[in-house]
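User: What would this chain look like folded?
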Amino acid sequence: MTEAAVAECRLKLYPPGTLLVAMYGEGKTRGKCSELAVAATINQAIAAIVLKPAFEKCRAFLKAFLWHSYESMRQQASGGVQPNLNLQIVKSISVPLPPLDEQQEIVRRLDTLLDAATVQEEALDRALAMVAAQRQNILRAAFSGQLVPQDPNDEPASVLLERIRAQRNAAADKPAARRPRKAKIAA
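Assistant: Here's the prediction, encoded as C-alpha cells.
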C-alpha cells in the first residue's frame, strides 16, 4: 500500500490499535472483533473503532467486551439470504464501562484464562497425536501377531485363507438347491 494508492482511492488509513468488527459473513466471520497491529485500510465489510486518546486505556476492555458480545451482535444482523451487520447496529452497541482499575482486572483475568485454555488446547493436540500414533502401533502389532501368544500348532494364515477360498469356490460351483414350493390352498 502506497500513499499514492491511499490518496487515489480515497481510502482512510487506520492506525495500529484500531478495533475492527466484521459486518458480513454467514459462517463465523460476522461479529468477530480484532485489532490492527499495523496501519491499514479496510473495506465496507468492516467497522473500524478508533478510540480517542482519553479512552486508549479502555481498548483491551472494549475488545474483550466485543468478543463477549459476539453472539448477541450476530443476532442483531438483518437482511435476507445473508444477514449482515451495519454501522448503525455497531454504533448502537452499549458498552458498560466500569472504573479503569476494574477494567484492567477483568482483562488480566481474561488473559489468564485464555492462556490456560491455550495450554490445554496444546496438551489436547499432543494427546490426540499420541492416541493416533498408539492406534497405529496397536494395529501394526495386531496384524503381525504380537498382541496374543501364538500357538505354534496353528496353521499359517495363508493356509487358512487358501482353505476359505477353496470352500467358497466349491460352494459357487454347486447348483443352488431349490426350495420346495408351498401348496396353495383354495378358498
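The first helix runs from residue 3 to 8. If you want, I can go into more detail on any region.
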